[in-house]
Amino acid sequence: MRNLPYATLAIRFAIAVFVTASLSPLAQSQSEVPFRLLNGTVIVVSVTAGDQGPLNFVLDTGADTTILDPSLASRLSLSPLPPVRQTTLQGIRSVPRSSLASLAVGSMQVHDLPVMVQDLAPLRRFDSRLQGIVGQDFLLHFNYLIDYHRLVVRIEAATEIRDTIDGDHVSIEAGGNRMIVPAQGQSLRRATLRLLLDSGTSSFVLLRSGAQALDVPAFQTAQEVTTGGSVNLRIGQVQRLEVGSAQLHDVPVILSAAQPGEPIGDGLLPTALFQSIYVNNREGFVVFNPRTGKS
Questions:
Q1: pLDDT tens digits for 87-143?
Q2: Cβ atoms within 10 A of the Cβ of 222, count?
Q3: Which residues contact 141 (CB under 8 A, 6 or more apart)?
């Protein structure tokens, strides 16, 4: 058995919190936000939360809500809201909730954003500077391109990125503050999968439905550490994975026996498997490894 590094909420089955947040008209032109990688895959950006900043947050497309560490929530003197239920592999637990006056990442800014307050100690063991997680309830308001080669997130004000790239438009399933995309997988069987696009994990994960659909044999065991504790998992390999025009071969995969009741698809697809990803939330599509130079 080997230990896999903790990669933010690598398997987080949180119940979606449906929020209505007001957008700031701050963004008027394309901007870039530099990032660094934690454990080689997890994106860490500089943010301003309320009157605090700069702060180190994980940018996590797989987290449906934004999360603050209790130490930051205390400094911001946030007033508590009724708690919400969070589903993990260890069961259901109650998580405190509050509202953040404003959160800004480069030219992206949202006001009156509901947030979860959750102890990020397992994540801070790898980087003590981390204070929170930027989730989908924030990100879904914007179009952006994650560039792993240049280590920047390019934020689109209008259509300036869309107008200069080519590539297959892969539709995003709407709803629940989640980005679920279709993919074709091949192991002992071939099947269509629905995968949660996740910048907060280093591991390709298949839930029970996905592992059974592809009939993926396990050849190793592993232990994954999440905010809910340690989980024993099996490791296999998917011979071929196609998402749009992007093709991946012999991809290691964590096989989870869990099949949560929440609609998160058949597994987690790390964005770090690709060189770059363009996310267009306004029109509801993603381009994997977009080609530049479109006239």
A1: 555 556 778 889 999 999 999 999 999 999 989 988 888 899 999 999 999 999 999
A2: 18
A3: 21, 23, 108, 110, 281
The Cα 137–Cα 175 span in angstroms is 11
Instruction: Spell out the domain ranges in the chain.
Output: 2-163, 165-292
- Give the count of beta carbons closer than 10 Å to the beta carbon of residue 268: 26
Do the domains 165-292 and 2-163 match in fold?
A: yes
CA 134 to chain CA centroid, Å, is 9
How far apart CA 6 and CA 170 sit, in angstroms, is 29
Provide the pairing of β-strand 246-255 with 22-23: unpaired
**What 3-state DSSP class applies to 149?**
coil
Q: Which residues pair with 198 in a beta bridge?
A: 270
Give the pTM. Answer: 0.84
Q: Following CA atoms 103, 106, 108, 111 in sequence, which dihedral angle do they give, to the nearest 10 degrees?
A: 20
Please answer whether residues 183 and 198 qualify as being in contact, where contact means their C-beta atoms are separated by less than 8 angstroms.
Answer: no
Q: Is the separation of the CB atoms in 226 and 9 below 8 Å?
A: yes
Q: Which CATH architecture has domain 2-163?
A: Beta Barrel (2.40)
CATH architecture type of domain 165-292 = Beta Barrel (2.40)
Tokens for 20, please give them: 């209505």
Question: Half-sphere exposure (CA, 13 Å, Cβ side) for 235?
Answer: 14
> 88 has which bridge partners?
91
Question: Counting Cβ atoms within 10 Å, is residue 111 exposed (0-12), middle (13-18) or buried (19+)?
Answer: middle
